[in-house]
Structures are given as structure tokens and as C-alpha cells.
């Protein structure tokens, strides 16, 4: 899975805010998610770059995703 995070300078005024964001990124990453973080300026001034990065990340994630398996013995469908 791919998680998108959109940031602005208003929420990063001190070290505590930065550490909070790092923890927030670590939680989904620990579950196997790819976390992409975009700043306000990039989203508003360079959206095509953001889209390209999101597409590339999704393609990479999709190529690594396990193939669906048929249920084995004892598994419910």
C-alpha cells in the first residue's frame, strides 16, 4: 500500500512537531506501507512531479505485492 502525506510549514514549527511526523510515518511503514510525503509548495507548484512520484511508487508497490492465493485446506472462503 502507498500512504500519501501532505505537509505545510504551519505544522512544523518545532522539534516536537517534526518528531511527531517521524512517528506518524513509521507506523504505516512498519506495516509494509510505502509513505510518500509532499510539501505544500510541491503540491501547488509542481503537481506533475508529485503525480509522477505517486505513480512510480504505486507501480513499485504493485510489482512487489504478493499474488492472490487459492484457499488452502482448512481455510474458509
The largest β sheet comes out as: 2 strands, parallel
Count of the domains:
1
**Unreliable spans:** none
**Whole-angstrom Rg:** 17 Å
What is the N-to-C succession of helices and strands? EHEHH
Please report which band the strand proportion falls in: under 5%, 5-15%, 15-25%, 25-35%, 35-45% or over 45%. Answer: 15-25%
Mean pLDDT: 83
Q: First CA to last CA: what distance?
A: 23 Å
Multimerization status: single chain
Helix content: 40-55%
Query: What structural category characterises the helix and strand content?
Result: alpha+beta
Which features characterize this protein?
2 strands; two-stranded parallel sheet; alpha+beta; 77 residues; 16% strand; 3 helices
Description:
The protein has one domain. The chain contains three helices and two strands; from the N terminus they run βαβαα. The protein has helices at 15-30, 40-45, 47-64, and strands at residues 2-7, 34-39. It has a two-stranded parallel sheet with strand order 1-2. The mean pLDDT is 83.
Write the layout of secondary structure elements.
Elements: E1 2-7, H1 15-30, E2 34-39, H2 40-45, H3 47-64
Parallel strand pairs: 1-2
Question: What's the short story on this structure?
Answer:
The chain is an alpha+beta fold and 77 residues long. The chain has three helices and two strands. The protein has one domain.
Amino acid at each position: 500500500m502507498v500512504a500519501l502525506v501532505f505537509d505545510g510549514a504551519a505544522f512544523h514549527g518545532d522539534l516536537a512537531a517534526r518528531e511527531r511526523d517521524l512517528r506518524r510515518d513509521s507506523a504505516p511503514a512498519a506495516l509494509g506501507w510505502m509513505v510518500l510525503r509532499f510539501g505544500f509548495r510541491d503540491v501547488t507548484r509542481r503537481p506533475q512531479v508529485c503525480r509522477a512520484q505517486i505513480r512510480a511508487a504505486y507501480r513499485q508497490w504493485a510489482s512487489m505485492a504478493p499474488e492472490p492465493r487459492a484457499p488452502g485446506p482448512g481455510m474458509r472462503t
